[in-house]
Write a structure and sequence with these properties.
Layout (H helix, E strand, L loop, with lengths): L2 E3 L6 E3 L1 E4 L17 H13 L4 E3 L8 H12 L8 E6 L14 H15 L4 E6 L8 H13 L3 E7 L3 H14 L4 E7 L11 H8 L2 E5 L20 H4 L7 H18 L3 H10 L6 E5 L3 H8 L8 H10 L8 H13 L6
Parallel strand pairs: 3-4, 3-10, 4-5, 5-6, 6-7, 7-8, 8-9, 9-10
Antiparallel strand pairs: 1-2
Length: 343
Amino acid sequence: MRYNTLGGTGLLVSEICLGTMTFGGQGFWTNIGSLDQSVADRIVAGALDKGVNFIDTADVYSEGLSEQITGAAMRNSGRARSDIVLATKVLGTVGKGVNDRGASRGHIMDGVKASLKRLGTDYIDLYQIHGTDPVTPIEETVRALDDLVRDGLIRYVGVSNWSAWRIMKALGIADRLGLDRIASLQAYYTIAGRDLEREIAPLLLSEKVGLMVWSPLAGGLLSGKYNRDGSGEGRRANFDFPPVNKDRAFDVIDVMAEIAKDKGVSVARIALAYVLHKPFVSSVIIGAKSVEQLDDNIAASEVVLSTDELSRLDAVSALPAEYPGWMLERQGAERAASVAAPR
């Protein structure tokens, strides 16, 4: 297992992160998975045995049951709490009250206490805002998270599904006021959905913010289990998410299948390995319904893609040109060419 720093911090996280969205199966989340404690124990222990030290969950997953199962599985593994980097999230609806959602100081303070109780721990390594709250001022959210860091309830701050301008504004507020900076972004990124490369990826590299990738297999579409005619079994059959340009995705799958055959590995491993080769990626979140699936996905960390293979995959998955990207490239090319290439 390889380890990367989480953004500009000194925290080392495994490049494979175990996602626990499949734990529990309450309410809407039965569409994702409904693993009970015994299976979750085996998956968590199996991941830790393979060198994974990073686990991600959220307060809304299975209406809080995922956090309970995750915390119990960590304890049942026998591993020291300090050996595990535990991440969870707050923002979504967790009750019937009007303030039982969002990124306000009130909801964040209530949310962290509830998550700590469910997880059975006295601190959270990475606490993430699980989306955009258009009502709460960003400064209020940043100040509340900084207070939690100072109180020792959380150690690092993250966000999920934020736009580039919002991340940059939060970083500016933190720098101006001397508050704790955003360490990571959790976002959708896959070889079949490279939109993040337009604005967010350059921001992450510039500001040293780490990227945790969710759904790197596009909800299972890139697992190699689906056909162009729509046939196939898995989560996509019942829950067609995230949205993907299917024509482009299956063109990508065709190329990945050729590379996978040459290497004697699964198509899923190639899809994961492609994402892991990107310099702005800190960790890729995988969710598993079995130990066998877990082992296959973790093995993606051992796949090395050649320059030629990466070029083929880049070409077949290339994003269509959009403004201002094509103009920035056109205007900056001459200036960039005047700088001497590395020796």
